[in-house]
Specification:
Blueprint: H1 3-24, H2 40-53, H3 57-73, H4 82-96
Helix pairs in contact: 2-3
């Protein structure tokens, strides 16, 4: 990870952490927190990585995991679909691998 990207990520994590802590201590009420807000800490870096490096297995898994957890946190029970989805994805990767 480049030094400038590390600094941006560090600042973002500090801001989220401080706001979350202040919210938990009832010092400052923050309404930016919604069910599954923390999954954005997986989704956003995955999307940024895809834009910069293209789609790779690593950022694809990170994005998929983030979206899965976000939907799960918002009432979508996706656990019944995980194994079939994994099998379909692996099959597609095998078919379209160069």
């Amino acid at each position: 990870m480049e030094k400038s990207n590390r600094k941006v990520l560090g600042v973002i994590l500090l801001i989220f952490g401080a706001l979350f802590l202040l919210n938990r201590l009832n010092i400052f009420t923050v309404d930016i927190f919604f069910n599954g807000w923390w999954t954005l800490l997986l989704i956003i870096p995955a999307i940024l990585s895809m834009l910069k490096q293209g789609v790779t297995l690593g950022n694809g898994i990170l994005l998929g995991l983030g979206v899965f957890l976000f939907l799960d946190q918002n009432g979508w029970n996706l656990s019944d679909y995980v194994l079939p989805s994994i099998l379909i994805i692996v099959g597609l990767v095998i078919l379209f691998k160069k």
